[in-house]
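Q: Hi! First time doing this. I have a protein sequence and I read that you can turn it into a structure. Is that right? Here it is:
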Amino acid sequence: MPQRSVLLTVFDGLQSLDVTGPVEVFAGAERHTPGSYRIRTASPDGGPVRTSSGLTLVPDGSLADAADPHTLVVPGGAGTRDPDPRLVEWLRVHGPRATRLVSVCTGAIPLARAGLLDGRRATTHWAYCDRLARDHPAVRVDPDPIFVRDGNVATSAGVTAGIDLALALVEEDLGREAALTVARHLVVFLRRPGNQAQFSAQLAAQTARREPLRDIQQWITEHPDGDLGVEALAARAALSPRHFARAFRAETGMTPGRYVDRVRLEHARRLLEDTTDGIGQVARASGHGTPEAMRRAFLRTLGTSPAEYRRRFRPAPVT
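A: Yes, that's right. Below is the predicted 3D structure, encoded as C-alpha cells:
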C-alpha cells in the first residue's frame, strides 16, 4: 500500500482545531496502519504561526520547500478573512497538483481566491457562506452540509466538521475498520454524513420575538409526536392558520412544516443514537408515524436509512 502524504498549510490567525483535528485523525490512522500517512505542516515562510486562540505552532518547514502532497489541507480561522497573498499564490500553483484538495471551515476562502473552487459545489462555516457566494459567484456554495465532495475537492463546515471529513477520507483510503478504530479512540461518531445539516432546527431557526410563537417552538420540541399541523399549532397560538403560518415564517425564517420536519428528524436521530428502541417505536415517538415515513425523511435529508444511521452513528463501546 503506497504511503499518502498529507500537508497542512498553517498561517497566523488559523483556528487551531482545524489543524489538530484532522492531524489527530490521520495520525491515528497511521498508528492503526503503519506506513499509511506521512503528515507535514508548512507556513508561508517556514516560521512559527500564532493561532486565533493564542497558541503558537511550529511548522515542519516552508511552503516553498514543501513537496506536492497527495492530500492538501487548508484550515480556516480569522487569518483567512484576508488571506496571506503568499498562501493564495502558492495554492494557485500547487493546489491543482494535489491528488486531494481539502478545506476546513473558512479555509475555503483562500481556495476560492486561488480559483480552485470555480465551477464546484462547496461549503464553509455557516457564518461565511453568504460572503463566499457573494465574493466568488463562480463557486456553487451550499450552506447546509457539514462537508461536500466535488471530484477531488472536499470542503467542510466549521471546526469539528474537519474531523468528520478526515474520518471520511480515512475510510475511503483504509476502510471502515481503520476509520472506526480512530473514531473510537477520539470518542466521536463514525461518521456524521456529509449532507447532515450544520444546524439543529433550533439553531437554524431564529427565536420568535412574540411569546406565543416562542411557546409554539418549545411545544414542537417537547411534543414531536403530537398534532403539529398548522391548524393545531395556530389554535394553540390563538391565531388563524394563515396568520400563524405567515408570522411563524417571518419571525423564525422557516415555515412551520419545515421546522416540524427538522425537529422530528433530530428527535429520531437522538433516539437511534441513544436508545435501543425499535425502528417502529422510534418512528412513532418522533412523530413520523410509520417506519416507511421515517425512512423517506432520512433518505431525503441524510441520504441514509434509519437502520443504517443507527449502525454507523451509534457509538460503539470503547475498549
